[in-house]
């Protein structure tokens, strides 16, 4: 009888310990959920390139969305003016880098840009502000596409390097053949 009571006591203790562990795990999961859910982390690594006298390209990396889909909007201003919101909303496409072309700016003017991230839990401004002075004329500068001259130069240099590698390989092969003939 004593053995049975001891066994029941041990079983009850084991069940209570398992229940406590389950409660602790549930509390930890709740803490993780509380930490994750909230306003998005701020956008970072902002970069702006003035393309023409009225157009710029702004790029950034989105911060962690903290549990909900996020959208972005751009704020900009010219010197000594209040920030204005660019009217178009940019949806997070899940990529590591986001970008947006802004048009209808005034020529030869210094602008400042920042990005705002929004989800259902709140709004977060980027900690960065980037500057760009629009051009005086309509000359287009593309930061993403190399010029035709640089493509041709790259192709020529690449083909010369390839020919040089093939020539060296042939010379090494011939040298090995001549060494084998000498040994015979």
Write the layout of secondary structure elements.
Blueprint: H1 2-36, E1 44-50, E2 56-61, E3 71-78, E4 84-85, E5 90-91, E6 98-102, E7 110-119, E8 122-125, E9 130-133, H2 148-183
Antiparallel strand pairs: 1-2, 2-6, 3-4, 3-5, 3-7, 7-8, 7-9
Describe the structure.
There is one protein chain. The chain has a domain of 90 residues: Sandwich (Immunoglobulin-like), CATH 2.60.40.10. The chain starts with a helix and ends with a helix. It is flat, with a radius of gyration of 32 Å. It is 39% helix and 26% strand. 12% of the residues are buried. The chain has 184 residues and is α+β, with helices and mostly antiparallel strands. It is built from 2 helices and 9 strands, in the order αβββββββββα. Strands 3, 4, 5, 7, 8 and 9 form a 6-stranded antiparallel beta sheet that branches. The protein has a 3-stranded antiparallel beta sheet with strand order 1-2-6, with no helix packed on it. The mean pLDDT is 83.
Write a concise synopsis of the structure shown.
Pfam families: fn3. With 184 residues, the protein is of the alpha+beta class. It has helices at residues 2-36, 148-183; strands spanning 44-50, 56-61, 71-78, 84-85, 90-91, 98-102, 110-119, 122-125, 130-133.
What structural class is derived from the secondary structure elements?
alpha+beta
CATH architecture of the domain at 44-133: Sandwich
User: What are the low-pLDDT stretches, counting only 5+ consecutive residues below 50?
Assistant: none
In round numbers, the mean pLDDT is 83
Q: Please report the total strand number as a whole number.
A: 9
**What CATH first level of the domain at 44-133 would be assigned?**
Mainly Beta
Domain Fibronectin type-III: 42-137
Organism: Tegillarca granosa (Malaysian cockle)
Keywords: Membrane, Transmembrane, Transmembrane helix
Protein name: Fibronectin type-III domain-containing protein
